[in-house]
Amino acid sequence: MVRTGQLKLYRSSAEGKEQTLQLLGPGDLFGLCTAFATVSFPASAMAIEDSAVLLIPGTVMETTARQEPALLFNIIQILSQRLKDSMTLIESLALKEIPGRLASFLCQLLPKETANKKTSVELTISQRELSKILGATPEALSRALRKMANDGILSTAGRVITIFDRNALEQLAEGE
């Protein structure tokens, strides 16, 4: 469990290409698949800021789950959400161009109640890390941000992205 800070889960190819799979913050659990089933975790974890993690041995998880079956339901909920998130990531990487991937990522950050009001979000990661999540080069990400800015959809100032046209962003995320 992440106690403080921020981690990323990622996979690397033999050629050194890296794909960020998920960002984790305080309270997020990871490695659940190794608690009951497999010996090794299928991804790597790296702190992207000063962080502290809590390690709970699989034997402790198993013993606790036998005593408190509600823990298993919570784990199933977390794993189900992770599966859904992984399917969304696969769909995005396979079927969308970089602007659509970026728009989808930004739509997930936006609060639901903002409707089409101007809204700012602050990234907790660098644009280099964002490019790894999107499966893009930093240059391609920069071009996509610049095009979206030129189209009046958003503006950027460091890690702050201001969305001016949420409808256009959502249409881009949907591939329209």
Overview of the structural elements:
The protein is an alpha+beta fold and 176 residues long. It has 2 domains: 2-94, Jelly Rolls; 97-174, Arc Repressor Mutant, subunit A. It has 7 helices and 8 strands, in the order βββαββαααβααββα. It has a 3-stranded antiparallel β-sheet with strand order 3-2-4. It has a 3-stranded antiparallel β-sheet with strand order 6-8-7. β7 and β8 form a beta hairpin. The longest helix has 26 residues, at 70-95. It is elongated and about 55 Å long. It starts with a strand and ends with a helix. The relative contact order is 0.13. The model has no long low-confidence stretch (mean pLDDT 89).
